Amino acid sequence: MHLILFIVFAGFCLAGAINLLLQTHPINSALSLVVVMSSLAVLYLLLGAEFLAAAQIIVYAGAIMVLFTFVVMLLNAGREERTLGSRAAKAIGFPATVVILGVIATVILKAQNLGGATLSDPITSTEDLSRVLFHELLLPFEVTSVLILIAILGAVALARPGDGERRVSK
Amino acid sequence: MIPLSWYLLLSAVLFSLGIVGFLIKRNLITVFMSIELMLNGVNLSFVTFAHEWHLVKGQIFVFFVMVVAAAEAAVGLAIIIAVFRARSTLAVDRIDLMKL
Hints:
Chain A is mostly helical. Chain A is built from seven helices and one strand.
């Protein structure tokens, strides 16, 4: 059962990621990214992280992707034009990507004492998670709330039609 | 039983696909989506290791990554809107100057 679920949702995940690269319209890429994130939530659930599975759906597949599709529609982004791309990306980027993937894959495959996951594994409950989060890691948690506040202020200040637009329109 | 190395391999492949997307996509928004794909790949390996060592802190790290990703998406998309206002284009090939 676990094997079937893993294969199905890992397949969805990879198909969505490859589709993101192949689509030329940004809205299609955004929708395939939603597929990737939702199937990742199922994989989190298989690994016993129930809170993260819910947060993945709500925060990533919900909030962040709504923001993305909103911006795509607001800016009326059309098909991207195919250009040759940069020469540096071709010469260095793709070989470097292959090397990174190869190195990570060999390290993972060489690791002998990695365990396995079964469906009967204990699930990390939200209670355990919040006990650590609100006792040991209370300060980082509060700092992130300040970070979010600054991000909101920055987003409002950046997206507001300000001096930059007026200078261009003159 | 599924070996955890499969999960780790999946996360490595997702991360690499994110890098490839960052390199080949020519639309500013899609480039940004590739970054989100990389973050998700890393998150999967965090959850896998949290499962391997029965530690809760790995999952909390993923929680913080999600928070930072949400903040990053808000600020990044605001920057994209500002760039589009100034340049009227989203093609990364035409956005090659630091000044507006």
